[in-house]
Design goal:
This protein is α+β, with helices and mostly antiparallel strands. It has one domain. It has five helices and four strands, in the order αββααββαα. It is globular.
Length: about 150
């Protein structure tokens, strides 16, 4: 339940910010601070633009991954793990929604720009943060001190 709620919040935040980016960044970028700016870009590939132009296969893989995350979400053991899975699921659904429902020819809207990293969006950031949180919670729950404490 918690994973679904987090996913829904991520999807809404992602889609609202992408709509704002399309509406306000079409003709110019907005510099924020240092290397950080808002700049509208479209990515028809996967992460880091890998597979640019392979929209059909990317959509199929994304649907399979979303289904796998939904299946995994039913069995998360802790609250942090549920939040992590929700972040990943929401990010995946947000980007999949771009490919399926926006008229971008299967491209994802990216708008958060730094000189040192590929342009990304709220969904991408949620996926990365969710994966890091999930790895941390899984490593923490499987540490030797945790297993010994549970056995005693």
């Amino acid at each position: 339940m918690l994973a679904g709620l987090v996913a829904a919040v991520v999807v809404v935040a992602d889609q609202v910010t992408k709509s704002l980016a399309v509406a306000h960044l079409r003709h110019h970028e907005v510099h924020l601070i240092g290397p950080l700016a808002f700049r509208l870009e479209y990515n028809s590939g996967a992460a880091f633009s890998i597979g640019t132009g392979l929209t059909g296969p990317i959509i199929v893989v994304a649907v399979v991954l979303v289904a796998a995350v939904v299946w995994f979400a039913r069995r998360v053991p802790t609250t942090p793990a549920a939040v992590a899975v929700g972040l990943v699921l929401g990010g995946a659904v947000g980007n999949l929604a771009d490919r399926l429902f926006r008229s971008n020819h299967g491209a994802v809207i990216d708008f958060i720009y730094t000189r040192y990293w590929p342009t990304f969006n709220v969904a991408d950031a949620s996926i990365v943060c969710g994966c890091i949180l999930l790895a941390w919670t899984l490593l923490r729950s499987s540490s030797p001190s945790r297993r010994q404490a549970g056995e005693e």
